[in-house]
Amino acid sequence: MKLRNLALAAAVGAATLAGMAQQAYAQAKEQFFPVLVYRTGAYAPNGVPVANGWIDYFKLINAQGGINGVKIIYEECETGYATDRGVECYERLKGKHGGATLFQPLSTGITFALTEKAPGDKIPLITSGYGRSESTDGMVFKWNFPLAGTYWDAADILIQHIAKKEGGLDKLKGKKIALVYHDSPYGKEPIALLQERAKMHGFELQLLPVTHPGVEQKATWLQIRQSRPDYVFLWGWGVMNSTALKEAVATGYPREKMYGVWWAGAEPDVKDVGDGAKGYNALALQHGAVKDAKVVQDILKLVHDKNQGTGPRDEVGQVLYMRGLMSAMLGVEGVRRAQERFGKGKVMTGEQVRWGLENLALDQKKLDALGFAGVMRPISTSCADHRGATWARVHTWDGTKWVFSSDWYESDSAVIKPMVKSAADKYAAEKKLPRRTAEDCQA
Question: Which domains does the chain have, with CATH numbers?
Answer without folding.
Answer: 20-150+290-390+421-442 (3.40.50.2300), 152-288+394-413 (3.40.50.2300)
